[in-house]
Predict the structure of GDT1 family protein.
Amino acid sequence: RLSNGSFYHDSVSRSEVVDMDWKVFLTIFGAVFIAELGDKTQLATMLFATDKEVSKYTVFFAASAALIVASALGVLAGTLLSEYINEKYLHYVAGIGFIGIGFFTLYNA
């Protein structure tokens, strides 16, 4: 809270502040949550948590901070790429990449 009792600076009108789109938030949260379940980062975190000499709080906060930084890098990279490459083409590249990973996984299974 700012000293004037508002959550917004005087120079910023309420209409200029972007409201949270909860539908998008829940979609992204659900997709990332499901993708991370059983992922190597979760397995590594579980392994760190098995060490009886390490605080579980340390494991939780370190893993959480790492995921936040990795997500921030993803948002930054996506934002920068979208400045130079049409969103439609980024979707094509991402789709082809995922299909390629799928074929690679099936081939090596």
About this structure: Residues 14-108 form one domain.
